[in-house]
Amino acid sequence: MATQKFGIREFGSVTKAKLASAANAVAERSSRHRKHAALTEQHRLHFDLLCKAMDDPALASVLDTYETDIPPERQRQYLFANVLYVNALYYHRIGAWSITELYGHLRVICRNDVFREYWSATRHHRKSLPEASKEAELGRMMDGLVEEMDRLSQDQNDGDFDEWWVIGEAPED
User: Fold this and answer.
1) Local structure of 129: helix, strand or coil
2) Alpha helix locations (H) across 56-163?
3) What is the number of H-type helices and E-type strands within the chain?
4) In Å, what is the CA distance from 38 to each residue of 12, 94, 113?
5) pTM across the whole model
């Protein structure tokens, strides 16, 4: 009889452990789902606000935190550049793009002179980011891409600009 009770207790302990593990997995999945939903809502709100600012110069002036005077048309272009950048980050954050895929997409965006100008004009915005943050890390990655693309575009007369896709070294996943 003592052997049976021991076996039942052992079975009960294993069952409790498996139930606890399953409950933790469900809670973790639920937490990821909530985080993903919150990130999606934040992204949607960011996009809506920037669209309003692009449509209304009075609202765009609220976002004018550049160190130099930017004409309204250029500011709308900068706001759109921000939308493109944040959208790419969003795809990475939700797991739709690996870091390598994000890098490839950002490399394409960096081909555009206006985007590189926007990135330079907002450099001081990124200085407040914690050095170890993911956002700061991605900002440094972009800095490197923009610098290399600027160098390549200056050498455009040499025909090198046609090889923009080899710019930089993509980070490993």
Assistant:
1) coil
2) 57-60, 72-93, 99-109, 113-121, 123-126, 134-154
3) 7, 0
4) 38, 11, 33
5) 0.72
Beta carbons within 8 Å of 71's beta carbon, 6+ residues apart: none
**What's the one-letter identity of residue 133?**
S
Q: Which residues of 3-16 are buried (b: 16+ CB within 10 A; e: fewer)?
A: eeeeeeeeeeeeee
Q: How many alpha carbons lie under 13 Å from residue 70 in its C-beta half-sphere?
A: 23
pLDDT in tens, 15-67: 777 777 777 777 777 788 788 788 888 878 888 888 888 888 888 888 888 88
Q: By C-alpha distance, which of 169, 151, 171, 172 is closest to 160?
A: 151
C-beta pairs of 142-149 under 8 Å, 24+ apart in sequence:
142/85, 142/106, 142/110, 143/119, 144/168, 145/103, 145/106, 145/107, 145/110, 146/110, 146/116, 146/119, 146/120, 149/107, 149/110, 149/111, 149/116
